């Protein structure tokens, strides 16, 4: 299968999202500007370019391709990938990689880091990934990328660059840190995640799962399986204050054209340009 037939791509909020995300089939979202990949899926085209991976949970459609990805990094003599995941699944993942090492007669090396909600591993220059608890059938985490920059203190705004340089050289603190919630990817979750995390609701780009889109699977059944229904997102849509709300993890019951039509019909008119359907 060609790369273009597998991967979707969306440019929002100064970021390029590329990947595949269909409920129960495969989820892997790559963001080249950040050098970070969310989940592994079945290791789709392009995934081997990423050495920093944020795993939401241990279901096979989100990390079934991990042994292959780790194996390929080794065969290419690349450094072992750095993989951040819920703490509960680190040891089972080590066991899986050890068994595949036996099968392949080749050691699969990866840096596995287990996390609890509230952890903030560094994932790039001025970038941290905040782990947030989600509500799914198994232990799961959303990952929120924060970018920290330094802004000139108000009392120094408007001064000449030479004066600023002199003050800095003299040890004067002339900037304050500013942290922006840049991108949040929920993984699989019930709507409680949206309700509980104000930071995610004001993130520049929020990638939120919507598995069920109509009455073919109602809210009650959707929740029973640990997922979100479109009805629940529509009811809360105006609480989102960021630039782009990206809806992913669509069940195979629903086509993309159906989902796009529902966005136009169901979401408030003032929001429609900010709501995007992702996943072919």
N-to-C order of helices and strands: HEEEEEHHEHEEEEHEHHEHHEHE
Helix content: 25-40%
Query: Helices and strands: which structural class?
Result: alpha/beta
The stretches of 5 or more residues where confidence is low (pLDDT under 50) are: 1-5
Radius of gyration over all CA atoms, rounded: 20 Å
Topology of helices and strands:
Blueprint lengths: L2 H4 L1 E5 L2 E8 L3 E6 L4 E3 L13 E3 L5 H4 L2 H10 L6 E5 L3 H15 L6 E5 L6 E3 L2 E7 L7 E12 L8 H9 L5 E11 L6 H5 L1 H4 L3 E5 L9 H6 L5 H7 L7 E5 L7 H11 L8 E3 L3
Parallel strand pairs: 4-5, 5-6, 6-7, 11-12, 12-13, 13-14
Antiparallel strand pairs: 1-2, 2-3, 3-4, 8-9, 9-10, 10-11
Describe the structure.
The strands form two sheets. Strands 1-2-3-4-5-6-7 form a seven-stranded mixed β-sheet. Strands 8-9-10-11-12-13-14 form a seven-stranded mixed β-sheet. Strand 8 and strand 9 form a beta hairpin. The longest helix has 15 residues. With about 280 residues, the protein is of the alpha/beta class. The two termini are about 15 Å apart. The chain has ten helices and 14 strands. The N terminus is likely disordered.
Short summary of the structure?
The chain has helices at 3-6, 60-63, 66-75, 90-104, 161-169, 192-196, 198-201, 219-224, 230-236, 256-266; strands at residues 8-12, 15-22, 26-31, 36-38, 52-54, 82-86, 111-115, 122-124, 127-133, 141-152, 175-185, 205-209, 244-248, 275-277.
Task: Name some characteristics of this structure.
280 residues; 7-stranded mixed β-sheet; 27% helix; alpha/beta
């Amino acid at each position: 299968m060609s790369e273009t037939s597998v991967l979707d791509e969306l440019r929002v909020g100064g970021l390029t999202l590329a990947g595949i995300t269909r409920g129960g089939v495969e989820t892997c979202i790559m963001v080249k500007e950040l050098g970070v990949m969310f989940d592994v899926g079945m290791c789709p085209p392009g995934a081997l370019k990423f050495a920093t991976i944020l795993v939401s949970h241990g279901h096979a459609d989100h990390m079934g391709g991990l042994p292959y990805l780790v194996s390929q990094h080794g065969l290419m003599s690349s450094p072992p990938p750095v993989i951040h995941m819920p703490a509960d699944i680190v040891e089972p993942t080590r066991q899986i990689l050890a068994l595949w090492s036996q099968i392949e007669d080749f050691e699969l090396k990866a840096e596995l880091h287990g996390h609890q909600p509230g952890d903030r591993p560094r994932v790039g220059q001025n970038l941290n990934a905040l782990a947030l608890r989600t509500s799914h059938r198994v232990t799961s985490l959303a990952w929120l990328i924060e970018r920290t920059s330094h802004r000139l203190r108000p009392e120094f705004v408007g001064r000449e660059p030479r004066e600023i340089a002199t003050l800095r050289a003299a040890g004067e603190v002339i900037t304050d840190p500013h942290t922006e919630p840049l991108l949040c990817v929920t993984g699989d979750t019930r709507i409680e995640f949206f309700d509980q995390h104000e930071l995610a609701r004001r993130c520049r780009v929020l990638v939120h799962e919507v598995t069920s889109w109509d009455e073919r699977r109602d809210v009650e059944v959707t929740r029973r399986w640990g997922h979100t229904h479109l009805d629940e997102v529509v009811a809360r849509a105006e609480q989102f204050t960021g630039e782009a709300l990206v809806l992913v993890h669509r069940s195979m019951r629903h086509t993309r054209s159906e989902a796009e039509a529902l966005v136009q019909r169901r979401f408030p008119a003032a929001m429609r340009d900010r709501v995007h359907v992702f996943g072919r």
